[in-house]
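Worked example 2:
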Amino acid sequence: MAWVWFFDLDGTLYTDRTGLWPAISERITLYLQKFLNLTREEALTLRKQLMATYGTTLRGLQALYPSTDAAAYFAFVHDLPLEDYIGPDARLAETLAALPGTKWVFTNADAAHAQRVLRLLGVEDAFTGVIDLFAIQGVPKPLPEAYQRALALAGHPRPEQSILVDDQRRNLLPAKALGMYAIWVTPEAEADDAVDAVIPDVYHLPEAWTRLVSQAGVSKEERTC
């Protein structure tokens, strides 16, 4: 069986402990303050509303303000010295190498940011490519169409041959409903019946995957294809 992996980027391939995602999150809030002339408290409230209604802050902004430029938004929120937060991660490289099949980054961010992160982590060569918000035509996770478009871009693998690894539970549920394996990366939960596996960090993925396919009755030969 030819497995196809879809990895979220921020908060999944590196943890919040690096400080990078909190820094990006702060830039998103600052974007709202700067371009909508809001106080910090107003910006934080608006972010919560946009996330709840539209799935992402950017999609909400585009709905409310059609002139919002996605490229300019990403340029602003990712304008950070990433090398101050992350660097080469040999353990991550070993983890990815231990997983069978092809691997894609599947992110609501843009490819330029994803490629910068992968280069700094030293795992750029582990991935076949990046499926970013522009590649899926502006339709972000967790909207069901995003997953269908990602599967098409990855060569139309069957959902049951595909695995999504993400740190956001809400992003995993549509993938699971579609028939994909759903693995939640979070230090805050030990088990969740809505997903296939819960792991505290990406480094636990190989052992979790071995358990998962064994429980599913996948043969040893199929596990490694």
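The two ends are 5 Å apart (CA to CA). Residues 20-77 form a domain with the DNA polymerase; domain 1 fold (CATH 1.10.150.450).
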